Amino acid sequence: MTSADLIYKIFKMTEWREREDPYKGSPDDQRDGFIHFSTARQLPGTLARIFSGENDVLIAEFKVADLDQGALKWEEAKNGDYFPHLYGVLGLENMTRSWRIAQQSGAFVLPKDLEEPGGHP
């Protein structure tokens, strides 16, 4: 099994403003016992399913190689896709880029420089 080189953490803006470093996860992450990530290909679905009630979010990019490989697991979701989950804390100093995006006409539109094909184990 291979993995994407880059993965993304989506933050509600309130969570981003109140974050601590190292980051221990959102309330949903803490409930589930891991920090949720998505690949670039998975971002549109994650935004639509989980963040549709938010006006804007921050998407943070991380290089898989910079994360604790023993704590990063690719796990199958109900839809059969594999999502990256980090069982531990996240050092925000490892963030490579970020984008603040807002809903436009009821949907999030990803910036062109974030869109990438593939990215699935």
Strand order of the largest sheet: 1-3-6-7
Q: Please report the number of helical segments.
A: 3
At CATH level 2, the architecture is: Alpha-Beta Barrel
Average pLDDT score:
90
Name of the top-level CATH class:
Alpha Beta
What global shape is seen? globular
Write down the CATH topology.
ADP-ribosylation fold
Helix and strand succession? EHHEHEEEEE
Total beta-strand segments: 7
Q: Largest sheet, described in full? A: 4 strands, antiparallel
Q: How big a fraction of the residues is strand?
A: 25-35%
CATH superfamily: Protein of unknown function DUF952
CA radius of gyration: 13 Å
Distance between the ends? 6 Å
Give the count of structural domains: 1
Helix content: 10-25%
Question: What structural class results from the helix and strand content?
Answer: alpha+beta
Unreliable stretches, pLDDT < 50, 5 or more residues? 117-121
